[in-house]
Amino acid sequence: MSFYDTIAAELDDLKSIRRERKLRSVVTLGEGRAICNGKEYLNFSGNDYLGIAGNGQLRAEFYRRFRDFADTELGLSAASSRLLTGNHPAYTRLENNLSLLYGNRAALVFNSGYHANIGILPAISGKDDLILSDKLNHASIIDGMQLCQAEFRRYRHLDYVQLEEFLNAAKDKYRQIFIITESVFSMDGDTADLQQLVALKKQYGAVLLVDEAHSVGVRGDNGAGLCAELGLLGDVDFIIGTFGKAFGSAGAYVICDDLAKDFLINKMRSFIFTTGLPPMVINWSNFVLEKQVAMTAERQHLREIGDLLRSMLPATLGDSQIVPYIIGDDGETAKVAERFQSGGILVFPIRPPTVPANSARLRFSLTAALRTEDVRRVGELL
Q1: Which of 211, 212, 237, 298 is catalytic?
Q2: Which residue out of 55, 186, 215, 285 is catalytically annotated?
Q3: pLDDT band, very low/low/confident/very high, at 226 (cuts 50, 70, 90)
Q4: What is the CATH T-level fold of the domain 17-50+295-381, as seen in this structure?
Q5: Which pairing describes strands 207-211 and 322-328: parallel, antiparallel, or unpaired?
Q6: Which helix H or strand E contains 304, and what residues bound it?
Q7: What is the helix (H) or strand (E) element at residue 241, kind and residue range?
Q8: Which of 142, 187, 141 is nearest to 47 (CA)?
Q9: Does the active-site annotation cover 267?
Q10: CA-to-CA distance for 317 and 334, rounded, in angstroms?
């Protein structure tokens, strides 16, 4: 068979089991709405957790603030890596403000969460090291581990008894052990026991990395995430956050010690060998970082509608703004998604390999821009 025959056959296989992926035309609106393929829906599929991305008033305020500095601050391309000419002064302002938010620890900004997760572990680990990863960590973390020279193992999801068994077995056999987890898991919407992980890290001399992509903006009094909420900012070696979800922007960052930041600048390939973000994006991230600190009411509303939605669904998990409705069968899940869409609810089927076999689901991803009556609409359709 030719190359094109081979890939056509693979695509046909995906179609036959309803796992084919397609791009959609989507415009995010305010008030938890979106236009998908020309039709308006209640948006239950985005990650705009605080409603910032769809907030036209915030955008207008941002443009007014920089109206007199557009030539220098609203550039649409960095046109270079940060290590050459792409390190606009806005980066320094953003990283300084991140540092203040996280108790004066160092901050380093990246182009995306994917860049962060495929770059940090390969930079800090070597062939004599071991990485221990939660089984349900995001695909970007798995890809990062596969780029490492270090050995890696995946412990059962949230199973810290098995994690400690791995730690015991690895004791004195490796130069360094790294533990990596998400704080709020992207598909189940549940949370890691970060206090127990910190205790294990200290007991076994491990380095702890926590991906807070689905926690920043949502958890903690000032939106700094679950580590901050639990008072663990000084105990986690690397805290990874994103601007592309609750903060309604683009890019990502890591919070770490000054020495670790300098090391990443010198060793992290996905940081060194890529063009920087546009100055306009960096300034917008800094603007929304400042604004989200005061969004206590939005965070509280998000918790309340999350609890409400979980109370209406017959099979769900977690305790966050991510509310999965587990159906199991791939085809049936796709059909249920279509029924919700017919009722004006934008929600999509999540199927293997994104989730384990026989756990296909609808993933309701909530935003504080949704009203309580919008969420009740899901129950009415059920």
Answers
A1: 211
A2: 186
A3: very high
A4: Aspartate Aminotransferase, domain 1 (3.90.1150)
A5: unpaired
A6: helix 296-312
A7: strand 238-242
A8: 187
A9: no
A10: 19
Set 48, 182, 237, 330: catalytic member: 182
Length of the chain: 382
Pairing of strands 106-110, 252-256: antiparallel
Mean pLDDT of the chain: 96
DSSP class of residue 72 equals H
**Residue whose tokens read 């695509």:** 11
| pLDDT reading at 42 higher than 90 | yes
- The confidence score (pLDDT) of residue 317 equals 83
Domain spans of the chain?
17-50+295-381, 64-292
Known catalytic residue: 157? no
pLDDT at residue 1, rounded to an integer: 87
- Whole-model pTM above 0.85? yes
Annotated active-site residue 221? The verdict is: no
Residue 186 annotated to the active site: yes
211 as an active site residue: the answer is yes
Secondary structure class of 228 (helix, strand, coil)? helix
Q: Which of 138, 261, 291, 301 is catalytic?
A: 138
The catalytic position among 88, 214, 261, 301 is 214
Is 115 catalytic? The answer is no
pLDDT value for 12: 94
**End-to-end CA separation in angstroms for the chain:** 46
Report residue 245: phi and psi, to 5°: -120, -100
- Judge contact between 126 and 149, C-beta under 8 A: yes
* Annotated catalytic residue 188: no
- Would you state the structure tokens that stand for residue 272, as one six-digit string? 């060194």
**Interior/surface letters 256-283, b for 16+ CB within 10 angstroms, e for the rest:** beeebbeebeeebebbeebebbbbbbbb
Identity of the amino acid at 102: Y
- Out of 43, 45, 47, 125, pick the active-site residue: 47
Paired tokens of 325 = 């409705």
DSSP 235: T
pLDDT at 382: 86
Number of neighbours of residue 169 by Cβ within 10 angstroms: 10
For residues 105 and 243, what is the distance between their CA atoms, to the nearest angstrom?
18
Report residue 21's pLDDT band, with 50, 70 and 90 as the boundaries: confident
Average pLDDT over residues 244-263: 98
CATH architecture of the region 64-292 = 3-Layer(aba) Sandwich (3.40)
For the cut 90, the answer to whether the pLDDT of residue 32 exceeds it is yes
